[in-house]
Amino acid sequence: LMSKFPSKNISDRFLQKNNSLDEKGRLAGQKNLLSCDNSDRDARFRLTETDFSNLFARDLLPAKNGEEPTIQFLLEMVDILTNYVKKTFDRSTKVLDFHHPHQLLEGMEGFNLELSDQPESLEQILVDCRDTLKYGVRTGHPRFFNQLSSGLDIIGLAGEWLTSTANTNMFTYEIAPVFVLMEQLTLKKMREMIGWPDGEGDGIFSPGGAISNMYSVMIARYKYFPEVKTKGMSAAPRLVLFTSEHSHYSIKKAGAALGFGTENVILLSTDERGRVIPADLEAKIIDAKQKGYVPLFVNATAGSTVYGAFDPINEIADICEKYNLWLHVDGAWGGGLLMSRKHRHKLNGVERANSVTWNPHKMMGVPLQCSAILVREKGILAGCNSMCAGYLFQPDKQYDVTYDTGDKAIQCGRHVDIFKFWLMWKAKGTIGFEQHIDKCLDLSQYLYNKIKNREGYEMVFDGVPQHTNVCFWYIPPSLRGMPAGEERREKLHRVAPKIKAMMMESGTTMVGYQPQGNKVNFFRMVVSNPAATQSDIDFLIDEIERMARDL
Amino acid sequence: LMSKFPSKNISDRFLQKNNSLDEKGRLAGQKNLLSCDNSDRDARFRLTETDFSNLFARDLLPAKNGEEPTIQFLLEMVDILTNYVKKTFDRSTKVLDFHHPHQLLEGMEGFNLELSDQPESLEQILVDCRDTLKYGVRTGHPRFFNQLSSGLDIIGLAGEWLTSTANTNMFTYEIAPVFVLMEQLTLKKMREMIGWPDGEGDGIFSPGGAISNMYSVMIARYKYFPEVKTKGMSAAPRLVLFTSEHSHYSIKKAGAALGFGTENVILLSTDERGRVIPADLEAKIIDAKQKGYVPLFVNATAGSTVYGAFDPINEIADICEKYNLWLHVDGAWGGGLLMSRKHRHKLNGVERANSVTWNPHKMMGVPLQCSAILVREKGILAGCNSMCAGYLFQPDKQYDVTYDTGDKAIQCGRHVDIFKFWLMWKAKGTIGFEQHIDKCLDLSQYLYNKIKNREGYEMVFDGVPQHTNVCFWYIPPSLRGMPAGEERREKLHRVAPKIKAMMMESGTTMVGYQPQGNKVNFFRMVVSNPAATQSDIDFLIDEIERMARDL
Questions:
Q1: Number of A:B CB contacts under 8 A?
Q2: Could you give the strand order of the β-sheet that contains B294-301, starting from the edge strand earlier in sequence?
Q3: Which of B196, B312, B201, B328 has the alpha carbon at shortest distance from B265?
Q4: CATH value at residue B249
């Protein structure tokens, strides 16, 4: 249709009205309210008032005459999405409109999750999209603090829209030339920030930090016992892995999946701030060796999930060097601090690691998913994982096939996670990430200063948090006079869940809670959302106190 | 700004012009060329001619007065994307504009992949987005046949745009209530189509077929040797896995990663069509047992990567039952045929499998990534993978926490892959998928009929292909008189790469090639693109013959 109605004026944007968009109507019934032209570039999109109730998926491209309904359908979707984006940043909008599973399953008014044999009209599809957003959670809302990943970065969002439109796959240069190169350049930049000479090394983007951590264990095993690749774990002695009791559970999951067994994942004791005690690592290495086990791998966490603790990497690296162990740094959460001149010292020693996990989708605000595993030794990922599938990785292509990176992965097809991140880096510059990170840490410190001596609050650990994690109990008035003991513990354990439930029911804010070790349920506040301000921190505290008044 | 300029007329769509969008200009310099209103719904988006050369990421939301530039920036991106979509379906557009890695790395005119400390203007960002698409590959183009995943489904695309706008994570109902339920319902529907009673069982969407296959091996091991989870592979005897020599390399990758070792992945012989010979499976099971190994797992491929072969599942299932082995069906490519009443018989016996991999992002045209692992036994995924992380999976939430499915996964964070698929199913109905699949198989048969007796073509295997894979050699005129032998083999081996290189340089079409076993390079044509027609098949054949004229 675009070619049938060439536009005439200075801009090609215009508006059409067409309430009965049947096959004939699409061709004949259009009135150009505004018709524009901009001859040195592609035609701009045109907005039509379209009746989607008689249109179906089959009427869209590649259908004959499908172009106009396709564009109109996509624009209608964009209308829904841009309204969602605006409201997400509007503090008068709720963070969520909570419903129980059975309520959503029974079907809300006009919103039925069941699938059927027959197609729905595009009008219903658009309604379904609105409802999907309505009953979801606004993770970009300035008062959403529930997860390490929060915020809605506009550049990253645009990048994801482009990525899904390009709809390609990372396995070969052949079908993802630009994205493969972007990944390569970005990984090199990240390795430079880690401090590896000239940014040399290896790496790949993976579907999340758990998989990145799994990679680190796999390549450590391959480095020391390459025969396991062909002969299995029985070709190796009893191997043990070390990680902090505060570390992410994905190290244990990797131990289970890769055939080490969770019993061979040895948990290290931490100080009161949740940081590994290096002497405990060394003691446990010696103990394992005395039992005849073979220590293989140490994970140092840079930014633990709950406390935001940074293990002392340099001291751990000394021990790893002494005993010839693989040192992995899980910086899924804390890696972003490498972008900050003020805070990167918390990862001092990371340049001594053999591998590093770093999730830009957490502290750096990149949309989900975006996680990198970075490796100091070049070629080891391919050595560990390559299977040389002839149908994908032909050696006789006309281009330099060293850019076909798919065989390094444990995946075959691999989603394009790089573009949004690359685009954000272009758009913000390194200094933009730095400013974001510094601001989030400042906000956390604001919260810490606000509550550390405030009536009704107890901090889970003393001192300024290392990351944006602020962990605290709120003690409702009824518990304040109660003596320490099991009764108070039990009552306090139930406070955070109750407040959280009220928050979700009222939809005003969201923050996480959990127990840790022998500590009963406490709130874990984290800030990674660029939309959050001091007023949102104040709001959170006010909400907690308001809701807990009668507990 | 939307609130400062409330709209007045019947529709809220209008157009504004504002060439100098500085802070003042945004507030004062706007002229409403059309201003509309639709009071019972959200305000429609407004199009402004915006100067992005002085705007930066920091001017977008959550910045003060960031709403208007945010919407304009997103609309500008949508303009780029909708133009890309239109051209993708336009056969006068090239499939790709090929450049070598060093060319793109050196920087094309105005397109520089390097990242820097300082931010780029939004104008440059938009240019970068146009260039990213320009130098990429149009995987939705009607003449892109290079991969099992092709096509650009508009509903799926809209679904991905929404998914990235919602930007949440699948681990808990708490932050993905709608998506978690959609996943549950869709997995149940898929299990019903497999034929498991009442669609009961388990499953999860994973980041691709390789990971889904890895899950199947993990859960098989957990089923028979649950102690491996805690004690590692040394707690089990020497376990062996069986899969066809034509099967996907991910089974071997899983064997390597999970600690079995690739030598314990035993390859099964196939008939001339690439289908497993059941007697060979039984012989190899007996052989393994005689050596003292323990057969654990058999993978039957439903739709092999190169030949599109379907292993005889029922006969394999008989053997698995006899020897008490886990039967996995890798239907990453062929699973979609379950949606077709005409073709689903090719998977007869799949209901006897213990687990099934099925990638809607392949034959069903769902955008990347969308892969499911489906399991007949309920609860086994959680048993195998759960680590009960307190900070995510609190038992004391106010809702039914059995909907918190994250602990079943080997991932922690998990991308929302379900929505686009659910939305496509709603929009097309089961019959829409069926029509798509039947059409693709018809097109393949059209190609097969066209070339099977055509001069210059040799089929790699005889008979009508089972899936859309048509494998053939093109014999250039200069080789047609040559006697069989090593010289002809060597020359023929170089034909497909040369034609492919010419295709890519000219950008007119793309199709894959590879060797297989002792067969020299041949073309593997596959059809999964809903935009492809008979004329595109004809075009491909014409192109091959045109390019090979002088070889």
A1: 569
A2: B202-206, B371-375, B355-358, B326-331, B294-301, B239-244, B265-268
A3: B328
A4: 3.40.640.10
- Based on the fold, state whether residues A317 and A230 are members of the same structural domain: yes
Neighbours of A491 (CB within 10 A): 16
Nearest residue in chain B measured CA to CA from A189:
B115
Domain range for B243? 169-415
Distance separating alpha carbons of residues B393 and B400, to the nearest angstrom = 11
**Are the beta carbons of A258 and B256 separated by less than 8 Å?**
no
Tell me if B84 and A34 make a contact (CB, 8 A cut-off). no
Residue of B nearest to A404 (CA): B101
Residue B74 distance to chain A (closest CA, Å): 6
Identify the bridge partners of residue A375 per DSSP, sorted by sequence position.
Answer: A202, A355
Can you state the angle between helices B67-88 and A154-166, rounded to 10 degrees?
10
CA-based nearest distance B480→chain A, Å: 23
- Give the residue carrying structure tokens 């001619």: B49
- Residue B454: inside a domain: yes
Q: Nearest-CA residue of chain B relative to A254?
A: B410
In chain A, which residue's Cα lies nearest the Cα of B396? Answer: A497
Same domain, B283 and B393: yes
Whether B10 is covered by a domain: the verdict is: no
Chain A residue numbers touching B199 (CB-CB < 8 A):
none
Residue B8 lies in a domain: no
A260 and A224 share a domain? yes
Q: Same domain for A235 and A204?
A: yes
From the list B133, B230, B385, the residue facing A263 with the nearest CB is: B230
Nearest CB among A264, A423, A431 relative to B117 is that of: A431
Count how many domains chain B has: 2
Together in a domain, A440 and A351: yes
Chain A residue whose CA is closest to B340: A117
Q: Output the CA angle A46-A130-B49, nearest 5 degrees.
A: 30
Residue A449 belongs to a domain? yes
Angstrom distance (rounded) from CA A141 to CA A162 = 23
Q: Given an 8 Å threshold on Cβ–Cβ distance, is B176 in contact with A136?
A: yes
Backbone dihedral region of B333: left (phi > 0), alpha (psi from -120 to 50 degrees) or beta? alpha
In this structure, the answer to whether residues A212 and A101 fall within a common structural domain is no
Residues A203, A187: Cα–Cα separation, whole Å: 7
**In whole angstroms, what is the distance from residue A67 CA to residue A60 CA?**
7
Contact check, Cβ <8 Å, B73/A154: yes
**Structure ipTM:** 0.93
Q: Do both A145 and A215 map to the same domain?
A: yes
**Domain boundary residue, one of B369, B387, B415:** B415
Contact between chains at A15 and B17 (C-beta distance less than 8 A): no
Residue B145, both tokens: 């046949």
Tens-digit pLDDT string for chain A (551 aa): 233 333 333 233 333 333 333 333 333 333 333 333 333 456 677 777 899 999 999 999 999 999 999 999 999 999 999 999 999 999 999 999 999 999 999 988 889 999 999 999 999 999 999 999 999 999 999 999 999 999 999 999 999 999 999 999 999 999 999 999 999 999 999 999 999 999 999 999 999 999 999 999 999 999 999 999 999 999 999 999 999 999 999 999 999 999 999 999 999 999 999 999 999 999 999 999 999 999 999 999 999 999 999 999 999 999 999 999 999 999 999 999 999 999 999 999 999 999 999 999 999 999 999 999 999 999 999 999 998 877 778 889 999 999 998 889 999 999 999 999 999 999 999 999 999 999 999 999 999 999 999 999 999 999 999 999 999 999 999 999 999 999 999 999 999 999 999 999 999 999 999 999 999 999 999 999 999 999 999 999 999 999 999 88
Asked which of B364, B394, B415 is the last residue of a domain, the reply is B415
The amino acid at B234: S
CA distance linking residue A135 with residue A149, whole number of Å: 19
In this structure, are B187 and B150 located in the same domain? no
Beta strand pairing status for A46-50 and A14-18? parallel
